[in-house]
């Protein structure tokens, strides 16, 4: 038996006036998703427990079968895992965004989607400057690790820092920075690091060139999502399946690492609109032969939600359908026993540009159970409310598919 879980990050939405009060899922042309919905069973999943933030970390951890109430320790540590950085029990991992600060406000949470090449130069420079004695005296040790585009990491000793109240930068675009860094005592060190990063970055040649080219300056780091390393039971031990994760996002790779799954790196997978859908679909389809379980994640619809870009969201859904699911279906038909689950991890509605904790629409297609399909014919937020699977907690999904 082969199992595929396909995640269109942030794909579900609310009705949008520009789309005649329809959602992108209602408008997009997605013949593959709809066909599997018609021949499969549908329902809704609760991917985010009430006491946790509706982030891709919590939601995807749930979908992979790990109850986040039990296993979630923060976003930073998951991404640290994905980069092969091993932390000790007393080290705290922060997510570190390169952001654009303007007049004391957080102007852009991704510094104009800075390229990985430019970002790496800036992160190297930060490490160099932060290892100077006068800074070490003030903040102690700590190290930046460069990731993809604006998404990086910072690791520092100090268990207590894991409890600090930090804020996701994508939730406070346009707001005064001071409001979100009102810390005291030992925690002030994090504010010092963020403030000193401004000094280090503002006149760097990379930023001078970006400004000269009308691009946003990556003139500050924003630390958030921190935590101690998690310990997840091994996926293969629990389910008896060997499996892989395909994603362009470090966070998701990290969940894979901690779960003991293999990360398949796809050239051209960017975690953004320009991700190479064809390559992702091809790698996913080709890796079926070596994997019983495949977790395929595409970030682009979520990014479209955050930027409020209706066109890009429609395009992202259509490309997932055509290039990713289409290629998977072409290959998976070689096996007569398989199941495919299709769902977003959470909604990222265009109108509010951030994640919500709404139930997400779920289709489970099984090649063995076409005769038991429910009455739902197309994949939308509204239609799947009536699905035969009802409502369930996301961390039960994998178990449900397998048993
Ligand atoms: Zn998001």
From TrEMBL:
Q: Does the keyword Transferase apply?
A: no
Involved pathway(s): Carbohydrate degradation; glycolysis; pyruvate from D-glyceraldehyde 3-phosphate: step 3/5
Species in which this protein is naturally found = Candidatus Methanobinarius endosymbioticus
Q: Which domain of life is it from?
A: Archaea
Q: Which NCBIfam families match?
A: apgM, hyp_Hser_kinase, PRK04200.1
What protein name does the entry list? phosphoglycerate mutase (2,3-diphosphoglycerate-independent)
Q: Name one Pfam family in it.
A: PhosphMutase
- Reactions listed under catalytic activity: (2R)-2-phosphoglycerate = (2R)-3-phosphoglycerate
**Which SUPFAM superfamilies does its entry note?**
Alkaline phosphatase-like
Family that this chain belongs to = Belongs to the BPG-independent phosphoglycerate mutase family. A-PGAM subfamily.
Set out the biological process GO terms recorded for this chain's protein.
Answer: glycolytic process
EC number of the protein: 5.4.2.12
Q: Which UniProt keywords apply?
A: Glycolysis, Isomerase
EC top class, in one word?
isomerase
Location of the Metalloenzyme domain: 1-397
- Keyword Translocase listed? The answer is no
Ranked from the top, the taxonomy reads:
Archaea, Methanobacteriati, Methanobacteriota, Methanomada group, Methanobacteria
Q: What is the role of this chain?
A: Catalyzes the interconversion of 2-phosphoglycerate and 3-phosphoglycerate.
């Amino acid at each position: 038996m082969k199992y595929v879980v396909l995640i269109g990050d942030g794909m579900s939405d609310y009705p949008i006036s520009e789309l005649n009060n329809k959602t992108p899922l209602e408008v997009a042309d997605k013949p593959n998703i709809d066909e599997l919905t018609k021949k499969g069973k549908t329902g809704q999943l609760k991917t985010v427990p009430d006491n946790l933030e509706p982030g891709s970390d919590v939601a995807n951890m749930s979908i992979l079968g790990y109850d986040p109430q039990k296993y979630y320790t923060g976003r930073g540590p998951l991404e640290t895992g994905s980069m092969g950085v091993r932390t000790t029990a007393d080290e705290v991992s922060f997510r570190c965004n390169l952001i654009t600060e303007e007049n004391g406000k957080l102007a852009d949470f991704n510094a104009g989607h800075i390229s990985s090449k430019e970002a790496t130069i800036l992160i190297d420079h930060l490490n160099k400057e932060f290892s100077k004695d006068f800074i070490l005296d003030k903040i102690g040790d700590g190290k930046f690790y460069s990731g993809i585009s604006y998404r990086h990491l910072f690791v520092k000793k100090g268990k207590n820092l894991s409890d600090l109240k930090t804020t996701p930068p994508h939730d406070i675009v346009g707001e005064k920075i001071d409001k979100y860094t009102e810390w005291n005592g030992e925690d002030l060190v994090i504010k010092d690091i963020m403030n000193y990063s401004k000094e280090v970055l503002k006149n760097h040649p990379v930023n001078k060139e970006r400004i000269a080219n009308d691009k946003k300056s990556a003139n500050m780091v924003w630390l958030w999502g921190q935590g101690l390393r998690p310990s997840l039971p091994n996926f293969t031990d629990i389910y008896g399946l060997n499996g892989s994760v395909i994603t362009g996002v470090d966070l998701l790779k990290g969940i894979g690492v901690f779960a003991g799954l293999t990360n398949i790196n796809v050239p051209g997978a960017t975690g953004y609109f320009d991700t190479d859908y064809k390559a992702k679909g091809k790698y996913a389809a080709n890796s079926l032969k070596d994997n019983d379980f495949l977790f395929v994640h595409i970030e682009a619809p979520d990014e479209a939600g955050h930027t409020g870009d209706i066109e890009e969201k429609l395009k992202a859904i259509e490309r997932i359908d055509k290039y990713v699911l289409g290629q998977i279906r072409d290959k998976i038909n070689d096996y007569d026993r398989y199941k495919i689950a299709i769902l977003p991890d959470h909604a990222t509605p265009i109108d509010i540009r951030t994640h919500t904790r709404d139930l997400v629409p779920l289709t489970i297609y099984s090649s063995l159970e076409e005769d038991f399909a429910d009455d739902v014919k197309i994949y939308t937020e509204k239609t799947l409310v009536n699905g035969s699977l009802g409502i369930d907690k996301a961390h039960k999904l994998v178990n449900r598919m397998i048993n």
